[in-house]
């Protein structure tokens, strides 16, 4: 008989009075996740998305306990632009974080913008980067990240998975491309739900009143099926939300006091 996964665990919602407290708690959480992963397998695999997220990771700079040489970083989604372009998630993450910490450049896995004219080839090449890091070591059907960090847009999108888009039903590919993103720039690559939902930990991060209207739909009405609501890691994965009180002002979902 096929092995049945236990149902996904419900999200854990942490809400903080200020964005400074949010970023500090998120840094503590990331360090603890890193420690557990390195103790278990000698490396820490992380995926991050763009948007406002890299700015919320700055509490990691100069923090003790970080073993940057053990990190392997991927992008949960990326805009198909040159890596130094203002729209590039990698450019933003480099400016906000990676240029200020001692992470080896070879441990940050980017798309190959030279393949921008063929999105199929570009997404295949990025999938091969994942295969090199994961398939040789874990031999799993999908890569199992130690931690994926995501944001949420005002329409409920996450990574580059947008409401009502055909990519929401992708079940086989690890990396898919989109040519018609409702948000510019139109060409992007993104991890698919199977990759997001096989992570050991997924943490959404959202700050500010601009997130206050979408969070109740994502957290209180998951049946609405917004992309962010469909991130539910399979057992034994866990899902966390790190938000500030401005973002969670209208949420009914129960909040959990933060402790490690």
From TrEMBL:
Listed GO MF terms: 6-phosphogluconolactonase activity
GO biological process, one term: carbohydrate metabolic process
Domain Glucosamine/galactosamine-6-phosphate isomerase: 18-241
Alphabetical UniProt keywords: Hydrolase
EC annotation from Swiss-Prot or TrEMBL: 3.1.1.31
Top EC category: hydrolase
Pathway given in the UniProt record: Carbohydrate degradation; pentose phosphate pathway; D-ribulose 5-phosphate from D-glucose 6-phosphate (oxidative stage): step 2/3
Catalytic activity: 6-phospho-D-glucono-1,5-lactone + H2O = 6-phospho-D-gluconate + H(+)
InterPro entries: 6-phosphogluconolactonase_DevB, 6PGL, Glc/Gal-6P_isomerase, NagB/RpiA_transferase-like
Keyword Hydrolase: yes
Domain of life: Eukaryota
Protein family (similarity comment): Belongs to the glucosamine/galactosamine-6-phosphate isomerase family. 6-phosphogluconolactonase subfamily.
Purpose: Hydrolysis of 6-phosphogluconolactone to 6-phosphogluconate.
Name listed for the protein in its UniProt record: 6-phosphogluconolactonase
Organism annotation: Grifola frondosa (Maitake)
Organism ancestry: Eukaryota, Fungi, Dikarya, Basidiomycota, Agaricomycotina
